[in-house]
Amino acid sequence: MLYHLINHLGSLYDFPGERLINYLSFRAGVGVLLALIMGLVFGKRIIGRLQKMLIGEEIRDLGIEGQLQKKGTPTMGGIIILLCILVPTLLLADLTNMYTWLMIISTVWLGTLGFLDDYIKVFKKNKAGLQGKFKIIGQVGIGVIVSLILYKGDTFTVQERIPDFKFQISNYAQADTQGSSSEGKSEIRNLKAETQRLSAPHKSTTTTIPFFKNNEFDYTMLVPDFFGEHKQDVGWLIFMLVTIFIIAAVSNGANLTDGMDGLASGVSIIIGITLGILAYLSNNIIYADYLQIMYIPGSGELVIFMAIVIGALIGFLWYNTYPAQVFMGDTGSLALGGIIGVFAIVIRKELLIPILCGIFFVESLSVILQTAYFKYSKHKYGEGRRIFKMSPLHHHFQKPGDGSIKALMQKPYKPLPEAKIVVRFWIVAALLAITAILTLKVR
């Protein structure tokens, strides 16, 4: 709103600095500061309000040092994050840009889903929270919405670089000068037409495969030829299924990671910075051409949005760092995971998620492996056995490896302090983020 107001006033009155609002770097910087300040100012008030309403976390006795001291710490702090994302976005973002609205819809949808889960846990005193099937329905729903918007929206286009076609054209042209047949000339015309089509902004199911040259992969390549003229539509159906899976996986991974003070918020900040850089490069046709990545027209507003998310998370981390004054709850973790998943899909970097979101991935994998092995060993040996001393993985490092817990992995033998575990996970997340950036050139 503020963006449109200043532009409107600038068209009527020429006042100093009015053009600054049109620079992505300026709005991104203001967005970070505004979201951060809002988090610091309103965060304290919201925490006080949650304390008065007795919205405290129910803590199970997991045998972890300091765990029971967290009992009564206010949860549902994700409200702070959502407030500090949505208000600055409405003020600073271009509200005529559909990428902006796509991210707003995703944030509100998954934030509401998480809020319902927290509400049932806190006010209904049901520790199970929202039933799993309703969570899945909600995640599938936003996946369908996002994929349909990308499919039907005319403004969601990409522009691909096709060096191979140009190389083939030069070869055919050379052959033509040496007296090639009319078939060669026809092939040249076809190749030129295809190059022009793919080099102009168009709707596509293409994505990027890391670590490979000519790394653009189209989901329609998975569709058999017998679908004929419907091949592209089936390709979009595959894209929809991938979108649903990624949103569900990342949002659940963020939810599982939110088990220590500052862990999920700190990791999300690192992931957000990386995605913001990738979005900025994808929005700049010069950088996109140099790095041989897809140019995505209009995606610059995603940089503004992610900058605001980072500012909101830093503001929240002020109160969430050890010892936490507030927990984000599912209200925050499901929304953050959804934002990261949708953002990666929109800039066509979803196949980078296992690397970039490696912490989320490993946390989820640890729970899956632990559960599967426990069931397998119980069926085979008559008693359930474990791989880790405890899952998700971050809790494994808080348990002593003295053999009191029957697990395949006993190291570390001495439990680590919570703050040390969190910072080390941040360091690993930073290394994974650097690796994700390096995939732009390492192919």
Explain what this protein looks like in three dimensions.
This protein has 443 residues and is mainly α. The protein has a domain at 2-158 and 234-366. It contains 16 helices and 2 strands. The protein has helices spanning 2-12, 24-52, 78-92, 98-122, 132-152, 163-177, 182-199, 231-257, 263-283, 285-291, 300-320, 329-346, 353-356, 358-381, 393-396, 418-438, and strands spanning 206-208, 216-218. It has a two-stranded antiparallel ribbon with strand order 1-2. Helix 9 packs parallel to helix 12 (329-346). It is globular, with a radius of gyration of 25 Å.
Low-confidence stretches: 162-173, 175-180
Strand order within the widest beta sheet: 1-2
Radius of gyration based on Cα positions = 25 Å
Structural class: mainly alpha
Q: Report the principal-axis shape.
A: globular
How are helices and strands ordered from N to C? Answer: HHHHHHHEEHHHHHHHHH
Characteristics:
about 450 residues, mainly alpha, two-stranded antiparallel sheet, 16 helices, 2 strands
Topology at a glance:
Elements: H1 2-12, H2 24-52, H3 78-92, H4 98-122, H5 132-152, H6 163-177, H7 182-199, E1 206-208, E2 216-218, H8 231-257, H9 263-283, H10 285-291, H11 300-320, H12 329-346, H13 353-356, H14 358-381, H15 393-396, H16 418-438
Antiparallel strand pairs: 1-2
Helix pairs in contact: 2-3, 2-11, 3-4, 3-11, 3-12, 4-5, 4-12, 5-8, 6-7, 8-12, 8-14, 9-11, 9-12, 9-16
